[in-house]
Specification:
This protein has 131 residues and is an all-alpha fold. 78% of the residues lie in helices and 0% in strands.
């Protein structure tokens, strides 16, 4: 099953020239939710596994790592703290991933609009310069 947006892209791709299709594929938008979820899961799992390694390993780094509790309310180096750390890691990672995709899409959109504007102005200038 394909989504409606994928079907629309496939229909639009059939109408594009080869060069335009390459540009569209090169500058395709990032999905904010997908990048946010992926980044959140990775950061959450990193914090979760780091806490578990500290629980199973040496106790020297417990104090250093427990300082995260100053920023992440409820977090501590414990079994429950590893789950709380996963939730915080997911939320922080989701926010940063979503923002990264949003800013990338925004900057790319502005850049492509600038290129199109320059091209349109060049075409108008060429028209005005022709005898």
């Amino acid at each position: 099953m394909t989504s409606r947006s994928a079907q629309k892209r496939n229909k639009a791709a059939g109408k594009l020239s080869a060069a335009d299709f390459l540009i569209v594929k090169t500058f395709i938008r990032l999905d904010e939710l997908a990048l946010g979820a992926a980044t959140g899961i990775v950061i959450g799992l990193l914090l979760f596994t780091a806490t578990l390694f500290l629980l199973l390993g040496s106790t020297r780094e417990h104090h250093t790592f427990s300082l995260l509790g100053q920023f992440l309310i409820g977090y501590e180096v414990s079994w429950l703290g590893s789950l709380i750390g996963f939730v915080y890691g997911f939320l922080i990672g989701f926010i940063f991933g979503w923002l990264a995709a949003f800013i990338r899409n925004l900057v790319l959109s502005m850049y492509l609009r600038l290129i199109k504007l320059r091209n349109d102005l060049s075409a108008v200038q060429d028209f005005m310069d022709s005898p």
